[in-house]
Hints:
The chain is of the alpha+beta class. It contains 5 helices and 10 strands.
Amino acid sequence: MDDRWxxxxxxxxxxATPALDEDEIPDMVEAxxxxxxxxxxxxxxxxxxxxxxxxxxxxxxxxxxxxxPDWVALAAASSLHVVPLVAVRWxxxxxxxxxxxxxxxxxxxxxxxxxxxRTGLPVVADVDGAVLRGAIVAVGADHCDLATETAxxxxxxxxxxxxxxDALSAGWDE
Length: 174
């Protein structure tokens, strides 16, 4: 009688933990890897150093401070660089763990530009190779208004290669 119970429990245990076919492991690893976006890798690198090149040809390096679905913030000395991912040409020193976000909600580029605008700090905007200095006075869904010394310019976020704030403040952390 004890032997039947032992076999029953052994069968149930075998059903609960199916055997892993070693031939499937590479496919499982690849399936996990293809689900990881650059934004996920950058989010996994928060607190670590990374170097990147923008489409404007600017090399930036610093500690990954934060990353969203379409942007990354690098802190270097007393500057903060916010770079849209569409402007990133390559990233070096991006190692360590990363996982697919699976729907994790992170702030968009427009939301982080609004956050910078609320600090009131002057910014340096790299716009399609041109450098603009001023203050962000308004942010829409896909653009921002930048007040320079001579005019208020409306800048589509799609052509923004990066924003730099030269003094980190408590306003960023709010």
